[in-house]
Design goal:
single chain; about 170 residues; 4 helices; rod-shaped
Length: about 170
């Protein structure tokens, strides 16, 4: 008995996932870090339900947070948002070049590697404006890849019916 073709194959769903991953990467031209961390996972067949996952920044909490901040906006730049504190990571203070002294006029000024700057113990960051890259990619995927997937499914249905008819005739 010949195996019956599936309505949606691993190749079909992988093609859709690949389209989505490429579309996300194309929209991240402004961030090499995020663009390099778009990952297409292996398609899964769970009892006839096909799925595929595309992630951005997986395994790096800084990058996943950055991806989320740019997708939806953060701090004051998102609805109901507030400033958030950024403490120094590997030192007791954060150093900025001198123009930052307009933002932090009371901060201590000193020269670092020949550049005048200011230091502060923490930063109250206003956030970043949203620069969505996933939602527009998903919208584009639905417009372009879903019709292709529908054609693949029609072909797979025809193949499936051919196998069933051959089995009936035998």
């Amino acid at each position: 008995m010949a195996s019956k073709p599936k309505l949606v194959t691993v190749k079909n769903i992988t093609d859709v996932g690949n389209f989505l991953a490429r579309s996300i990467r194309a929209r991240l031209g402004w961030s090499r870090k995020l663009r390099g961390k778009v990952k297409l996972h292996t398609a899964k067949d769970s009892g006839g339900n096909m799925s595929i996952e595309v992630t951005v920044g997986e395994g790096d909490t800084n990058l996943t947070g950055m991806a989320r901040a740019f997708e939806y906006g953060s701090g004051l730049k998102k609805p109901g948002g507030i400033r958030y504190t950024i403490p120094p990571k590997n030192a007791r203070a954060i150093w900025f070049p001198y123009p930052a002294s307009k933002i932090y006029p009371t901060a201590v000024k000193y020269i670092n590697n020949g550049v005048l700057g200011v230091t502060t113990g923490k930063v109250l960051h206003p956030g970043v404006a949203a620069r969505p890259f996933v939602a527009p990619a998903v919208t584009e995927m639905y417009k372009r890849a879903v019709p292709d997937l529908a054609l693949d499914i029609q072909k797979n249905v025809a193949d499936y019916l051919n196998v069933v008819v051959k089995e009936i005739n035998n």
